[in-house]
Amino acid sequence: MGQVLDILQRLGVDQSFYYQLAIIFFMLLACKFLLLDLLLKVIRQREEKTVKLEVDANQKLAKSEQFLKQYDEGIDQTYREIKKMVYEKRREIAFGQKSILKKADEEIKLKIDKERATFSEKIQAMKEQNKGEIKGLMDSFLEKMTK
């Protein structure tokens, strides 16, 4: 320890050195309480806010992804329901058209049968008339031939 004091005296260090050292220590201590603690507090608050905002952002992102998934499922479900409804309506329309066509076909067949029957009656009547005329002509022809 004696050598250290000897070196300090050669450098010109006296009792004021200890006072200067104490003043510097108190200045650093005052700066710590006045500036550094406040700065550290602000930094921690910002970090907490940032972490909190990041956690909130992650939660909102997860929630938005969940909403997107629900939306997509709803759209898909609605699409399937609409497709099924369209298929059923087409089927009903096709069935309705088939029944309409069947009815029209039956009506046409009935009309054809009626027309055929009336035409057959007309032909039969003409045949009878022609037979009568032919018989009359034959009789007159025979009379003329026999005379």
Mind sketching the topology for me?
Blueprint: H1 2-11, H2 16-146
Describe the structure.
This protein has 147 residues and is an all-alpha fold. It has one domain.
Key features?
2 helices; 0% strand; rod-shaped; 147 residues; mainly alpha
Mean pLDDT: 88
Strand count = 0
Radius of gyration: 60 Å
Helix content: over 70%
Q: Please state roughly what percent of the residues sit in beta strands, choosing from under 5%, 5-15%, 15-25%, 25-35%, 35-45% or over 45%.
A: under 5%
Distance between termini? 190 Å
Number of domains: 1
Major beta-sheet overview: none
Structural class based on helices, strands and sheet pairing: mainly alpha
Please count the helical segments: 2
Outline of the structure:
The protein has 147 residues and is mainly α.
